[in-house]
Amino acid sequence: MADPEKYYDHKALNLYFKDTKDCSIDSVWVKSHPKSTATAPLDYVHQVQLDLIALGYLEDQADNKDGYYGRATDWAVKRFQRRAATLIRKNNDTKKMELIKDSDMYTGPEDGILTTACAKEIRKWINRKWVAPLGVYTIEKLSTSGKLRSDAATAWEEIIKLVNAAGGTLSGPYGDTLRPLGKTSKKGTSAYSFHYCGRAVDLQQALANPKGRRYYIQKDSSGSDMYWKLYCVTDKQDGTQGTLYKKSTLTYYDPGDEKERKLPKDTYLINLTDLIQSTSKFVRIHAQNKWDTDPDKQTRSNKLEWWHFQYNVDIQKTFFDELELIGITKKQLMDAGWNTLTQLDHNPG
Hints:
Blueprint: E1 14-15, E2 17-19, E3 22-23, H1 27-32, H2 44-55, H3 71-84, E4 88-91, E5 97-99, E6 114-115, H4 116-127, E7 130-131, E8 139-141, E9 147-149, H5 150-165, E10 200-202, E11 215-222, E12 225-233, E13 243-245, E14 251-254, E15 259-262, E16 267-271, H6 272-277, E17 282-284, H7 297-302, E18 308-311, H8 319-325, H9 330-335, H10 341-344
Antiparallel strand pairs: 1-6, 2-3, 4-5, 4-7, 8-9, 10-18, 11-12, 12-16, 13-16, 14-15, 17-18
């Protein structure tokens, strides 16, 4: 029986890349490389590449539609498989995000192999006018300072209202929110930070300084990790806000001289960490390794992370997947310093 004309109608499709000498090549490749022998039916690889370009998973350039199932095509298929297994879709007509039902998600493996099931999923996307979710979230200014992606900004504004109502503050200027593209060289910071994704807020560190102090920082270790519990002095100290902590009943950490001290006087405080995390949308993170033993004091300070809270909803599997959601393309990311597929596929955070 002759092969069907279209790759997605083939009953036992198996297009793959193992290495440069063991991968699928079709008639389009053989036409320009006469000494090669096709390992895929007809022009199937070429057809798949054109569909991946239409969906936004391959760049529209000659070597991405040449009939050779190489690393770029393999990576594009893996990325498609990964996206298809989530609920996020972008409608190519409306340019807006759609959330699908669980039953509509792709359930196949993320292995870069184009089987019949994966081919059918690609065609489903094309028929439903779904494309890679580039820029489905906008970047929004916060009422305090800085910017976050739209859903994170909405969630953070809700938390600000909760904290203000309790008599606390999350005022700016923040140390960092959305970070401009550019691979960081700053000691003690991550090259894959959620700040690049528009998901993280660094609270105003000056609020923990002795002069006019509003924040008290307390060690809150969990196993080998050091977390921080953050308390905020309430606006009113008349008993109508917060909980009374008597003098010396709370031990706090002073990041300035890296010493622990006792609360200097009776003070009404709110547990800011619990309030921020009460919506289950933003969470604290633990201090980085060697936060207290790194020989460089500034690096130790950068590693504390007591100020850092990040949006914890629907975190994507890779750094690039996160950046794509706010409109950053593969080319932009690679031009900015993340210039290998391994770096693009790194876990975010």
